[in-house]
Structures
1.
Amino acid sequence: MPAEAIFMAGKIGFVFFLVLNLAGVLGWVERKQSALMQDRIGANRAPIFGITAIGLFHPLADAIKAFTKEDFIPARAHKLFHTLAPFIALVPALTAFAVIPFGDTLTIGGETTQLVVADLDVGVLFVFAIMSLATFGVVLAGWSSYNNYSMLGGLRASAQMLSYEIVMGLTLVGVFMVYGSLQLTEIARAQGEYFVFGGVNTWIPKWGILTQPLAFFLFLTAAVAESKRLPFDVAEAESELVAGYFTEYSGMKFLMFWMAEFVEIVVISALVATLFLGGWQIPWLHPDGLHVPFTAIVVGLPSLVVSMMGVGAFLMKVFVLIWLQMTIRWTLPRFRYDQIMRLGWKMILPLALVNVVLTGFVVLLLNR
Amino acid sequence: MLGEYVPVLITLVVAMGLAATFILLTTILGPKRYLRVKMEPFECGVEQLVSPRRRFSVKFYLVAMLFILFDIEVVFLYPWAVRFRELGWYGFGAMMIFLGVVFITLAYEWRKGALDWD
Amino acid sequence: MAEPENELHTDEMILNIGPSHPATHGTVRVLATLDGENIVNADVEIGYLHRAFEKSCEHGTWQQAFPYTDRLNYNSAIINNVAYAMGVEKLLGIDVPERCRFIRTIASEISRVADHLTCIGPSAMEVGAFSTFLYFVEARELMWDLIESLCGARLTNNYVRIGGVKADLPADFAEKLKAHFVKTRQLIDDVDKLLTHNRIFIDRMRGTGVLSAEDAIDWGWTGPCLRSTGVPLDLRKDEPYLVYDQVDFDVPVGEYGDNFDRYLVRMEEMHQSMRMVEQLLEKIPEGPINVEDTRVRWPAKQLVYSRMEELINHFKIVFEGVQPPKGEAYAAVESPNGELGFYLVSDGSGKPVKVRCRPPGFANLQALGPILKGGMLSDLVPSFGMINMIGGECDR
């Protein structure tokens, strides 16, 4: 029992350490990557004892600045809801990490644990349930600010997030059909298997991107839309609604919306990595070591090394997906509101339904 | 069974504690200077013309109603998707009828213009 | 009991876009009545940047109005200078030397490129494409480098004088221009790749802000906005001034009169302008850059210090101003946004009696309300951006 408690404390600590640092570092990554894409230098100040570390301390400076800024609440705003909104926006995003597996089992001193805070059998449902709560934060922020732009931003955000929640949920049905589980660890583990055609092992892993290619693209699109970033950022479109639902926020409360956005990027990346890119899996690497393709040779590796490599692989996949989202963010123009709705309801939703039918056919035919 | 949720609860509490600390700190640390004009909501530098707390366009409600319709259908799909292999062709056929209804619903809404914004 | 219709009505929302709003890069106010996301009605309110330009001009001598004209359309200040100078020269009845006309044309076309860059870049940024904005800012810096090498100033140039220009082309101008144009073309091509075939960008621009050719003429549209509706009106072709009759260039026109056509017309005009500048630099003749008329031309500093007559002449020009004969004149040029005209009245004294400016932005902006009506709120952003209203010029 004490070992279990230590493991749990360690895992929760690791997740929070990772997420909060990532959220901070992402602020830096976004600046630097956008600078790189735009022929600029980007953030490179904020020194500590003269060391600037190519601007890495900027998130820290941001935090200090945000904490010491005036916490502004408009006179006619609903004070309680105005304060509650950033809280509701940030908490679900952080909590969603509890069910995302960041590695395979870890064995230390004879004790084995799955590298996930809570290995729920309804993992994906939990993520959806908890993420949908973030909508309330946005809507409350829009409504409580007593500002026309906030109001319209909140309305846009709620309509958009509701629409894309359906789409996200539907695109994943195909994945559940293929792997037969809602449990994220199960889905990730199942992706370590190989495609076997007519008794011949192809040594191609059954990653979600290969078994459900259509779902991968649809889900990624829907997930980016759900995170309300460009090209789907009509809720905070600065050229139309000034800053959308958080127009009337300042200081740390403003930063909390900003953080929630970054944490959401990490959640989406982690979810996509787990569902479609094999989670912690590295092709041909199994708990007992590296299996050389098309042979029976096994290069043995200690299980601790394999576990750590798994965590590394998972983080690498997450980083690649974050990079992808940032690149999209700084390349594409913004959709118009009706175009977002049309994309969700008239393109992705029918395609997701077709994907369910097709998956059903193929899986049942291959099962024969 | 519910023991699985204990770590989730702990995570939730930690997250809430963190967020609450943020809000508390910014409230304490920031300066407070109130001016009547400053406390006005931002309206591009002019006085607010209309209150934002009014009825808003019915089109936004429509999205919410559509959401409820389709979200329930999606939730119905989940248990079936998980037990899909065991249910086989029979389950598949049954679900195809259900999905057919969903398709018809979508087509109907499409034709009725419920998905159009102009 | 209330009627069911009244019970179920939806309220229209009045949204205030401006005067201090990220989309209104110029201070203008659009009162948009919204039904959900659709604009039912849009009232455009101008005048936030009014600073009595026309009246201010009457208080100085004819020369002293040049810095004021810089601040009309500050993106292409030299074109304003040229238009005003042409008006005064018409009053005076003088012709400027050939080399001066070439230099004025070159400077005008470089300014035109800078202006179009400043129009498309921020408009693209406002529909979300931030990177393209910075590419165009970089290109604009290159254009301003060229302008700076001409007159020392980057933004408010004050380059043109009555009867000439301030300074001749610097010795290394042609080389510098060649290098800068290579880089600018590259940047324009980059943006072209990022935007012109971008589905999202096309969806945002195509079919929004449509105005028919007849309506455009009725509203007094000129420039790229009018040409986007298919009317090939361009003063450089139709009433050639300076040396536009000596260069070969095309006037791009649009087909549908929507925002995307306005974007395409401007993109092509930049290429045409650069083509023109390159031709002009090959053809430019040697010679003086100022008229030799002592009524207009300041004597050389050396002579002012050494000879009495020249000193008096200098004193009289500076203090009394150039004195055009009694009369009136209208001179118009094709500014980047349309016809920029100056109607000048002289009573024979050194100060203008009336300086009336016909800014293209004022006429173009009139039609903003009508083209927004019936569209979505988000269409306001590209429509406003592509009309390219310049506050300094529209409100004067």
2.
Amino acid sequence: MGSIQALIVDDSSVMRKIVERSLRQAGMELSQVYEAGNGAEALAVLKDNKVNLILCDINMPVMDGLEFIKQLASVENGKGVPVVMITTEGSESNVVTALSNGARGYIRKPFTAEQVKEHVMPLLAGKS
Amino acid sequence: MRPTKEVLASEHKHEEWHPILEMAAREVFQLMLASELKTAPPPEAPDQGLDVTSMVGLAGKLCGLLSIRCTGKTAALIASKMLGVDVEKASAELNDALGEVANMVAGNFKNKISGLNDGCMLSVPTVVIGTDYILHSMADSPGIEIRLLFEDNPILVSIQINE
């Protein structure tokens, strides 16, 4: 696995930093980390930038994470990019909705770097 | 037979939620701050100086308010531990960090009660700084309050429930 460009979407800047730290603790080499405070900001980031991985919260203002993954395929740079939801929302309906809309993983807060590694690494095998 | 957790949710045995709330708080501090909360002894006098209050509302099958109270110094320490930086560098992120802690404790609490999980929404966190205020919750039950120690500093985790 080579260097990764990641997009972290969360309305909490503290949580974005924690997620980035967890990725690094998981042994991931991050060449670029983009941040967005909601789904709309994330779509704007993807208009001009390519990423290998997206980690996304659900409950956010303006555009939530479930709407974001629905719209992700409409952005050229979003097609085929694996998305892992990281959220306090652990309800079964949200998990089902997220996975049916294209999310490849689902991590509940609070989480460990090890959990991030378990969910993210298999998605990045062979990608850089 | 229904799972225990579902019985708790559907029959609203709030007093039995005390250990669940405590576990929810302990897990958040353990996983996100690498810190073990300790049980605090009963206070000799009412807690004073707990001037940071982080709140998250619950709505749906369970309505109420979860709050976490601590001193400003403790809040800065919590932010510092979450971010892995010095206390001085973490102070700008204090509100965000405390809001996220309350959010995660509330989410972890409801996720542990399977009857609540799909029917209880959380609000965006609110953080109040200062002590000169009176909080009027619409809660109509006594609620649950847990007093814990974070690095020897008291924090109060409480949930007020509106049935």
